[in-house]
Specification:
alpha+beta, seven-stranded antiparallel β-sheet, two-stranded antiparallel ribbon, 12 helices, about 15% strand, elongated
Length: about 375
């Protein structure tokens, strides 16, 4: 560990001291790394990095825009608010690859057909970012991340929108992200609950590593393919798969069914109160957070903040609130009817409708 740390410090100091004076040779190469997905949440979408290699200058550096500091004060509050600072760092090729070898995650390299002048300009831009205010940027899930920053730097160097999205733009961001959670049910459930209406817009923004890889494959400069070489540096393992009952919608449905068959008013009110707290959070977090993906969250129609009033009401006000909740639930069903996560929310819809109906019925008696 000490040896690795010293090598990183040495590389950092070397680049800091000499990067502005280095002139890349004609043999220098610029390539893009597309790193595969992992089993951890933060690796769900993969990763993008830039490699600059020049044997004549004994240089082999990987620039990475996906670095952040877990020790940042109020880290999670900043992440939720949307003002968490990510930054670019540089590491040796060997250290970068070693990490992905240990995690057994795929790494695909695309070598780009840039002129010596373009390579030098990109190299200078990246180093300028390392040692200026550009080093840090405010992370945005769709609009600013490790992939969009790479696209921005390359397009800036070229002077035009060289890299453009070639994948399907007719589907929504929510549909685009859906397959990434195939092996992580609770991640899928949580993401689809907390994300609001923006993720139902057409996915026109290039922001995923795999999308960038596909776009590079199709990109050309003066009708010459941008990618001159593509190879897999690390053959990653397949992600964990297989059916696990506890990690599935069936387990959630079973838990809700157990609540329903108790047929207890206190149980129903407790569940609805907790759901109301969630709905209140969904309604307010969009006002607090700078993440536009959290705005206008129609899931608050299902997890209705009005549920918070039910334990404290009786008589006609109790009935009116339930009737209002039924109206909101009906609107929610209509809104959700065309969304990919409809089946995820069906157990919650059914349980909520039944509980409201039983509470309304018991109040009449």
């Amino acid at each position: 560990m000490t040896k690795k740390l010293l090598s990183v410090v040495f590389l950092f100091l070397s680049i800091l001291s000499f990067s502005q004076n280095i002139t890349l040779s004609d043999k220098a190469a610029v390539s893009i790394f597309t790193c595969g997905r992992g089993n951890e949440l933060y690796t769900t979408f993969g990763h993008t990095a830039i490699r600059i290699k020049d044997e004549s200058n004994n240089l082999d550096v990987v620039y990475n825009y996906g670095a952040f500091d877990f020790n940042t004060e109020n880290f999670y509050l900043k992440f939720v608010k949307g003002d968490l600072q990510y930054f670019i760092n540089a590491s040796s090729y060997d250290d970068f690859i070693y990490e992905y070898q240990m995690e057994k995650r795929e790494v695909i390299e695309q070598t780009l057909n840039f002129s010596p002048t373009q390579k030098q300009e990109l190299f200078d831009l990246l180093n300028a970012s390392l040692y200026s205010e550009e080093r840090s940027y405010t992370y945005k899930f769709i609009d600013r991340n490790c992939t969009t920053m790479v696209v921005e730097k390359i397009n800036k160097m070229i002077g035009k929108e060289l890299i453009q999205k070639v994948d399907d733009t007719s589907i929504s961001y929510r549909e685009l992200l859906y397959p990434y959670f195939a092996n992580h049910f609770y991640y899928k459930l949580g993401i689809n609950i907390i994300f609001g209406a923006k993720t139902d817009n057409k996915a026109v923004k290039l922001f995923l590593p795999s999308e960038l890889m596909h776009s590079l494959d199709k990109a050309t400069i003066d009708e010459i393919p941008l990618v001159v070489k593509k190879e897999t540096l690390i053959q990653g393992n397949e992600l964990e798969s297989g059916f696990h009952f506890v990690d599935s919608i069936y387990f959630i449905a079973l838990l809700l069914l157990i609540l329903v068959v108790t047929n207890k008013k206190k149980v129903f009110l407790t569940y609805l109160f907790i759901a109301g707290l969630l709905g209140l959070f969904l309604s307010l977090v969009g006002l607090y957070s700078l993440h536009k993906e959290l705005l206008w969250n129609y899931n608050a129609l299902l997890f209705d903040p009005l549920f918070l009033l039910l334990p404290f009401l009786k008589g006609k006000w109790f009935k009116k609130v339930i009737q209002t909740c039924f109206v909101f639930l009906g609107i929610y069903i209509v809104v959700l009817s065309t969304k990919p996560h409809l089946w995820l929310m069906l157990p919650f819809i059914a349980a909520t409708a039944y509980m409201l109906w039983k509470l309304q019925k018991s109040e009449r008696k």
